[in-house]
């Protein structure tokens, strides 16, 4: 699994481990963020049954403090696991790429446009950075936590209510999966056009070095 | 939030948008309407809970439910329409900005590209305009939403039970304060630093990649790699420090906005003392549903602030380019009397550099003389040559051609006097004919062929499928560095200018190419003034005079024999060079 992650998101071994950690952190944070709902559930129950009296205060006070503390701690950990580790990993990735470039045969540089190469190193690295710090752990964490909590809710509450509130998630996924082909295609086209623009846009820069009548023919 | 008083970015965007300005306004308006509409279903919810709790007419429930669904869907559709408007406008703005930038860049002195590195300018043309596009397309409508939603929310929160509402607002206000502390003036600076660090890294990357072939050919050390690595590490360290700085505020903010539940519990206890009524239960349930919206709204506000900072930074960078001084073109229009090139106390210092790249250089080069500039790398040889063709203007002193200051010669006139083949003279993606003809647009095909012949390019032309009508750079028609260089020499031959500046850049040349390039150079320099920036000393021995540059100063001058007798820097360099040749032969 670690190897697959490494390959898929261009990570080092450490980076893949970090990403798994980040996903776990997001999952835990998400589950903790659902705890307030539990306390509020008790509150409504107490209100409806008329049992909201003074002797419930210790329960709610302790519960609230514990949950708030948990929220603070898990958010802190998630921050470390996502943002901090990402930036460490990004340096490693860029250096590895640079090393790799150095070892390529000379002919490669004659054939490849330098604009493409630098766009690759810098732009893609920045993209991967945002992806691995924001989207990927968030998404995976969200899926795991929602699945865990959703399934366990079926055992506790009225299954019809659970179904009513969770049907959106599978439906959303179906939409995303069916559309992802089209979206990938669009993204591929977009980046092809971008590279073409890059190359064409480089031409004026090249032209500037062309000795002619003071750039007038441009 | 994050706003600088002096920078009116919306006005600037309006200027680039032109007729599309109204589309932006329409998009924002639609986004605002959709933001209001999406809040109304919360009122429906309140009604539904109320009916359920009080056991009133239950058939009413489905009416309110449908109303909520319809409003939600409608607001979504309106939001999509808003995005369409802003996207169209955004693409227009981006295109306008880019073409304005490119037009501007063409008027700038060529030296700018050496000084700043084209990587930086490329990045601005590309990324800063893209950032503006994202801002207009996504963040502008979202900003309207972020502005309208809190107002609607305040209504939703205070209209039903303002006391509970007030209690629920406490954590939100706390979170907001934490966030403000995060977004202060320092943040704007940090954003700028971040962009700068990225920029430095980007231009270092370009330099690094450009340098790889040279490094490989000469088997140099990994100095350039180390520089790039330092840069990467620097960026990484900066980013880490920055994230560490924001760690506590961010945790605090997240905790605050997620602590609303505790306050609802508190409110329930406070008001339950007066007896639990259906109305109280209704309100508590209602606030449980509504308060998460505060979190969502606050996060939106937070991100819109960040986006605005990115935008302001991007626009400032674009403005930096627009404000660069074009090379002054005065109207004196004087014509040089002959082709004597004279430098009088020429000094040049790159912008923000600590020392002069060229310092107080005097030299006089007679027509037809062949001179060589030698010196360690970084000694100012190339800068000096670039000053001669007015890549930029000397900081002090003057450069005269035929007794006339180059500043007083119109650029077209100057270019008739001087040809140059620099290291990075490159070909563009057109046919060879067009590439060579750029030097002299009215040249006939025969003239071009003759120039190619003189520049020893015939073997290149012969192997190409369509001869001189082959488009360079298309599939299968890549030329090697040495071949490209010969084509650029053909360009200079065609131009036939009396003064020729050559950068002897053999980084790409293989042995076979080298002799050909050498022969092409010789052909080209016949009967002309030749200024050769020499990297290898074997080629300079035949020069009429050799100028030795060291740390920006011209320290020695004379023929090869004279300089060898003087026993200065030239002699040391030459001896070292001879040794290295023997070394290679020995190995």
Walk me through what this model shows.
The complex is a heterodimer of chains A (218) and B (587). Chain A has 218 residues and is mostly helical. Chain A has one domain. Helices cover 86% and strands 0% of the residues of chain A. Chain A has seven helices and no strands. Chain A starts with a helix and ends in an 11-residue tail after the last helix. The C terminus of chain A is likely disordered. In chain B, 65% of the residues lie in helices and 9% in strands. Chain B has a six-stranded mixed beta sheet, sandwiched between helices. Chain B has a four-stranded antiparallel beta sheet with strand order 2-1-4-5, covered by helices on one side. The chains are: A mainly alpha (218), B alpha/beta (587). Chains A and B meet through helix 2, helix 3, helix 4, helix 5 and helix 7 of A and helix 3, helix 5, helix 7, helix 8 and helix 9 of B.
Low-confidence stretches of chain A: 205-218
- Helix coverage percent of chain A: over 70%
End-to-end Cα distance of chain B, whole Å, is 67 Å
Query: What is the gyration radius of chain A calculated from CA atoms?
Result: 26 Å
- Gyration radius of chain B, rounded: 34 Å
What is the oligomer described by this structure?
A: heterodimer
- Count of individual helical segments of chain A: 7
* Shape designation of chain B: elongated
CATH architectural group of the largest domain in chain B: Up-down Bundle
Order of strands side by side in the largest beta sheet of chain B?
Answer: 6-7-8-3-9-10
Largest sheet: number of strands, sense, barrel closure of chain A: none
CATH superfamily of the largest domain in chain B: ABC transporter type 1, transmembrane domain
Q: Could you tell me which chain pair has the largest interface and how many residues each side has? A: A-B, 66 and 86 residues
């Amino acid at each position: 699994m670690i190897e697959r992650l490494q390959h898929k998101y261009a990570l080092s071994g450490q980076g893949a481990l970090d990403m798994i950690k980040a996903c776990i952190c997001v999952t835990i944070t998400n589950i903790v963020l659902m705890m307030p709902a539990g306390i509020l559930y008790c509150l409504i129950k107490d209100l409806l049954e008329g049992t909201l009296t003074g002797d419930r205060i210790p329960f709610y006070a302790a519960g609230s403090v514990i949950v708030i503390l948990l929220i603070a701690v898990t958010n802190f950990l998630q921050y470390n696991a996502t943002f901090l580790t990402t930036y460490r990993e990004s340096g490693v990735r860029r250096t590895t790429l640079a090393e790799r470039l150095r070892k390529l045969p000379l002919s490669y540089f004659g054939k490849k446009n330098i604009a493409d190469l630098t766009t690759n190193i810098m732009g893609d690295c920045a993209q991967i950075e945002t992806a691995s710090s924001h989207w990927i752990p968030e998404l995976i964490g969200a899926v795991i936590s929602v699945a865990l909590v959703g399934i366990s809710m079926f055992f506790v509450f009225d299954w019809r209510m659970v179904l009513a509130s969770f049907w959106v998630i599978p439906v959303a996924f179906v939409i995303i999966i069916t559309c992802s082909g089209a979206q990938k295609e669009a993204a591929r086209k977009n980046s092809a056009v971008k590279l073409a623009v890059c190359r064409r846009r480089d031409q004026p820069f090249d032209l500037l070095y062309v000795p002619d009548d003071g750039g007038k023919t441009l | 939030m994050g706003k600088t008083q002096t920078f009116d970015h919306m006005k600037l965007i309006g200027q680039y948008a032109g007729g599309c300005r109204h589309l932006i306004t329409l998009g924002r308006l639609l986004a605002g309407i959709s933001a209001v509409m999406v809040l109304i279903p919360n009122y429906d919810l309140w009604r539904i809970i109320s009916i359920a709790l009080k056991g009133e007419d239950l058939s009413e429930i489905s009416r309110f439910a449908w109303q909520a669904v319809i409003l939600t869907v409608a607001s979504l559709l309106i939001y999509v329409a808003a995005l369409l408007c802003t996207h169209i406008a955004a693409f227009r703005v981006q295109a306008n900005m880019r073409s304005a930038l490119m037009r501007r860049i063409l008027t700038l002195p060529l030296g700018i590209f050496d000084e700043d590195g084209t990587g930086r300018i490329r990045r601005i043309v590309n990324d800063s305009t893209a950032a503006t596009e994202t801002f207009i397309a996504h963040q502008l409508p979202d900003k309207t939403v972020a502005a309208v939603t809190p107002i609607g929310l305040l209504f939703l929160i205070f209209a039903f039970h303002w006391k509970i509402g007030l209690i629920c607002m406490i954590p939100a206000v706390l979170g907001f304060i934490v966030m403000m502390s995060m977004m202060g003036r320092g943040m704007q600076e940090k954003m700028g630093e971040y962009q700068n660090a990225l920029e430095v890294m980007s231009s270092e990357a370009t330099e690094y990649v450009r340098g790889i072939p040279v490094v490989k050919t000469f088997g140099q050390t990994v100095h350039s790699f180390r520089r790039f690595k330092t840069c990467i590490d620097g960026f990484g360290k900066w980013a880490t420090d920055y994230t560490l700085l924001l760690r506590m505020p961010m945790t605090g903010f997240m905790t605050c906005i997620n602590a609303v539940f505790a306050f609802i519990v508190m409110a329930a206890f406070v008001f339950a003392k007066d007896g639990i009524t259906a109305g109280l239960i209704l309100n508590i349930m209602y606030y449980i549903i509504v308060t998460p919206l505060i979190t969502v709204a606050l996060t939106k506000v937070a991100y819109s602030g960040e986006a605005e900072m990115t935008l302001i930074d991007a626009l400032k960078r674009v403005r930096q380019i627009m404000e660069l001084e074009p090379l002054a073109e005065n109207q004196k229009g004087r014509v040089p009397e002959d082709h004597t090139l004279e430098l009088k106390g020429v000094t040049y210092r790159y912008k923000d550099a600590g020392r002069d790249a060229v310092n107080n250089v005097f030299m006089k080069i007679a027509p037809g003389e062949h001179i060589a500039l030698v010196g360690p790398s970084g000694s100012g040889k190339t800068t000096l040559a670039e000053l001669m063709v007015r890549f930029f203007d000397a900081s002090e002193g003057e450069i005269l051609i035929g007794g006339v200051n180059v500043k007083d010669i119109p650029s077209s006139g100057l270019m008739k006097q001087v040809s140059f083949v620099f290291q990075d003279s490159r070909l563009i993606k057109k046919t060879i004919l067009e590439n060579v003809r750029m030097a002299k647009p009215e040249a006939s095909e025969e003239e071009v062929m003759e120039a190619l012949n003189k520049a020893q390019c015939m073997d290149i032309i012969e192997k190409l499928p369509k001869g001189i009508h082959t488009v360079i750079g298309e599939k299968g028609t890549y030329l090697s560095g040495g071949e490209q260089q010969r084509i650029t020499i053909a360009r200079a031959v065609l131009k036939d200018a009396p003064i020729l500046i050559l950068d002897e850049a053999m980084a790409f040349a293989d042995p076979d190419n080298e002799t050909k390039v050498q022969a092409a150079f010789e052909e080209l320099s016949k009967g002309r003034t030749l200024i050769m920036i020499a990297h290898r000393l074997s080629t300079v021995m035949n020069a009429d005079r050799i100028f030795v540059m060291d740390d920006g100063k011209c320290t020695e001058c004379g023929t090869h024999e004279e300089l060898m007798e003087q026993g200065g820097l030239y002699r040391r360099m030459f001896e070292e060079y001879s040794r290295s040749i023997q070394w290679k032969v020995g190995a």
